[in-house]
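Q: what sequence does this backbone want?
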């Protein structure tokens, strides 16, 4: 059964035009509402529809994050929020030269809205047998969630860090109890766009009371590993030891 849908359009302070009826038709929307400042004076219109039952399609890509936060606030207030989708028809079609053919602009806007109704590609999935080693690469939230699971499984994670920010992030997870203390770090130095393989860098990255693994890629780009104990003596790191290599990529904020 297809969900009912409301289409919200905005002239972006009267800087673009559109054919509301044509866009409603290609969107398959039960209703269409057009305003001039959906992200400003007319935001109450978006709030009203997000608090209703119809799916909401907002034809504004630039302020997508704003409407997502609005949806979160509405859900927190009434424990319900309508499904929200956004699409950009302004930057990709609405704004053009003064002598542009309106029919061509409206056709492109309609094509963009129609394309947004198509099902998205299915994310590929693959089953993997780790044999005791797992590499976690992704946004901060993903790394935090996986760190909690690793701790729940009783596995000592091996924290692969490329700069001081990664170390600070790992120490924060230790402070929050997501990683057991003392942590084990693998310091990856001499890698392009990472920390330099110098004595000064090692001194800055040194973490007291932690087990440390040093992995460098000097000109040969060959990586070697060893674990360093607190008395600076070293021993070879066994590849059969159950461990997790955790690389976090903090999400950039606008």
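A:
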């Amino acid at each position: 059964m297809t969900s009912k849908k409301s289409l919200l359009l905005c002239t972006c302070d009267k800087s673009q035009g559109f054919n509301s009826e044509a866009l409603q038709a290609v969107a398959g929307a039960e209703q269409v509402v057009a305003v001039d400042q959906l992200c400003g004076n007319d935001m109450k219109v978006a709030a009203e529809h997000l608090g209703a039952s119809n799916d909401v399609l907002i034809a504004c890509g630039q302020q997508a994050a704003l409407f997502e936060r609005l949806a979160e606030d509405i859900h927190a207030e009434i424990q319900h929020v309508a499904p929200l989708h956004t699409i950009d028809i302004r930057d990709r079609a609405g704004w053009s030269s003064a002598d542009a053919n309106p029919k061509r602009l409206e056709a492109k806007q309609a094509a963009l809205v129609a394309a947004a109704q198509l099902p998205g590609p299915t994310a590929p999935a693959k089953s993997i047998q780790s044999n005791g080693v797992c590499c976690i690469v992704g946004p901060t939230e993903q790394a935090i969630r996986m760190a909690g699971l690793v701790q729940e499984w009783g596995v000592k994670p091996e924290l692969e860090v490329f700069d001081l920010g990664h170390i600070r992030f790992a120490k924060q997870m230790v402070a929050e109890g997501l990683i057991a203390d003392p942590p084990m770090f693998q310091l990856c130095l001499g890698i392009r766009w990472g920390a330099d393989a110098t004595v000064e860098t090692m001194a800055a990255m040194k973490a007291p009371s932690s087990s440390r693994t040093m992995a460098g890629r000097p000109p040969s780009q060959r990586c070697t590993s060893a674990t360093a104990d607190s008395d600076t003596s070293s021993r070879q790191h066994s590849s059969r030891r159950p461990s997790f290599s955790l690389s976090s990529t903090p999400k950039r904020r606008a």
